[in-house]
Amino acid sequence: xxxxIIPTHERPQLLQRTLxxxxxxxxxxxxxxxxxxxxTYLPPYNHLAQFAGxxxxxxxxxxxxxxAPSRDMGQAIADGEYIIxxxxxxxxxxxxxxxxxxxxxxxxxxxxxxxxQVQFENRAVSPPELLGPTHKVSIxxxxxxxxxxxxxIPNSCIAYRRDVLQGVTNNPDMIIYEDWDxxxxxxxxxxxxxxxxxxxxxxxxxxxxxxxxxxxNSNEGLVVQVMLELYQRYPARNMETRLxxxxxxxxxxxxxxxxxx
Length: 261
Fold this sequence. Notes:
alpha/beta; Spore Coat Polysaccharide Biosynthesis Protein SpsA, Chain A; 2 domains; ten-stranded mixed beta sheet; 8 helices; 30% helix; 23% strand; Glycosyltransf_2; Nucleotide-diphossugar_trans
C-alpha cells in the first residue's frame, strides 16, 4: 500500500524516534526508504533489522544537503500505491496508517491529507524534553484554491497516489518552501481530499531556540521573495484566489501588483 520516504540529515536520535513510531503502527502494509545526505553516523541497524525485507537505506553522496534531492531519490525507487514523505523529526500515532489505508481503499483519491498535532520540545537535552501537551490542529478548511495562496499542509500529512507523481520532482534550488512548490506542481488539475484524523505529530522547538532544526525559521528573509516566485510560477486559478494572495501580502504591509498572477 505505502512507501514511506524519509530524508535525513545528521539527526540519528530523531530518526530513531521516527522509526519507532513506524514500528508501532497497527498497519504494517508499507515499505520504507531512508535517504541520508551524510555518512557521519552509522545507520540505525537495530531499528532497521525489524523492517527486514521492507526497507532501503540510501546514502546520497552527490548534490548539496537538503531534503529535496533526497525525496527525489527515494521517489525514484518507491513502488507503493501511495507515497508519504515523512520528515525525520516527525512521528505517527500507532493507528495512523491503518486509518489512512481504510480511507484510501474506498475510492483511491489522488491526494489525501489529514489533520495534525504539534509537540514542542527542547532539543538541547538528549533525548529531547517534551514541553507541554500536544496541540491538535485541524486543517479541514484547506481547499485546492487556498493552497495557491499559502500552504498549511505539512509534508508528513499528505499521501500521494504514486501515479500522480509521474514526472514530478522537487526543485533542488529552493532553500525553503520546496514542499509547497512540489504540492502545487502535483495539484495542477487535481483535487485534495481531507481525512479528519490527526495521527501525524509535528515535533518543533521554539522558533528562537538554537536547536531549532527547521530551515524556515532561519531563512525568514527569503519568505516574501520565494512566495512571489511561487505566485508567478503557479498563477491563481481564479480571481478570488488572486485577491486572496493580494490580501495576504497587504496584511503584512506588503503591496505588490499581482494582476497577472
